[in-house]
Amino acid sequence: MDAAIDGVHVADTPSGQVPVVLVGVADTTDVLPIFVAFEKALAIRRGLDAEDTPRPFTHDLLLDAVEELGGRVEAVEITGLEEGTYIAELRLATPRGSVTLDARPSDSLALAARTGAPISVARSVFDAGKRETDAFTDLRDIRAVTE
């Protein structure tokens, strides 16, 4: 299923603030919430905002390395859900052909945010984790929390 990052937000919970990336899927109003660490959420937001930094962060460095070696990010797919943890695959085009890497969804989404690579979600994963968008309307954008 074709997908896109709908936003990077922060949920206030009894145990503190928890970042959540909302992944929307074409032709539905539901979203797939993926809870991530603050650093990953900020990396995704920086990618979406095309924010320049004086020194590369980890995702910028990885992308620079892939591109310097003649590769590019082809696609990201969220492929599985195992014991509450999402599984993703990162597809790279390389001079030797296409390569698929096991990856965390947060890292994959950070790279997709930087490159505009297409994002997809397996239907079974979306169906298992989807939530109504209205459940997240009161969340704050991560930029409001970190500024």
UniProtKB/TrEMBL annotation:
Residues 1-133 form the BFN domain. It holds the Pfam family BFN_dom. SUPFAM superfamilies: Hypothetical protein TM0160. InterPro entries: BFN_sf, Bi_nuclease_dom. GO terms for molecular function: nuclease activity. This is Bifunctional nuclease family protein. It comes from Halosegnis rubeus.
